[in-house]
Amino acid sequence: METTSSDKGLNGSILVRDASVEDISDVLVVEASGYDFPWSEAIFRDCFKDSYTFLVLLCDDRIVAYAIISDIVGEAHLLNICVHRDFNRRGLGAHLLHEVIKRARTQKCYSILLEVRESNLAAKLMYEKFGFSMIGVRKNYYPAADGREDALMYQLDVPDLSVDEQV
Ligand SMILES: CC(C)(COP(=O)(O)OP(=O)(O)OC[C@H]1O[C@@H](n2cnc3c(N)ncnc32)[C@H](O)[C@@H]1OP(=O)(O)O)[C@@H](O)C(=O)NCCC(=O)NCCS
Fold first, then answer.
1. Atom of ligand 1 nearest to the CA of 65
2. Distance, CA of 25 to CA of 41 (rounded, Å)
3. What residues are annotated to the active site?
């Protein structure tokens, strides 16, 4: 899906499409910019299985963000969403999360789950803005510079699915 955006300093075209294996090198650059403990190439290669949806967001033909969800019997798990550090705070994370929710709805998922570092204020605020609720804590889930860090679990009921569609 292609849109043109001129808000928040973005003047070019924004395109969200399914990723291909050829995109992994660009995705790794985005990943390295976003995380102290980035995923390996092997993990990204594993995300092309049938039950996964791997989206990339291109800004003027450059991959600057991606999101990966897995679908387990109608329950989507948002495994990763990342915007290149140089493109933060321009609405791209929100744009991509909106696409993730739309894709989950298309795939007839009734719920989206995710984990987020307790210290990750930007991501927590983004999820809360979209209506995600905190539903639990996974103790010591993530590696951290000084040991381990808890994950907060967030959940969203995918909007606009009728009860009939959920079964
Ligand atoms: C979290 C992340 C995806 C947000 O992407 P982004 O494109 O910078 O975010 P957006 O500009 O779309 O902002 C969407 C909302 O997120 C929140 N937000 C984003 N960055 C924020 C920051 N630095 N401080 C406070 N709130 C922030 C705000 O609620 C914002 O809405 P607003 O602009 O109306 O205030 C991005 O910071 C990122 O890639 N971080 C590294 C990877 C990561 O932590 N992923 C999440 C793993 S669970």
1. 39
2. 8
3. 115, 127
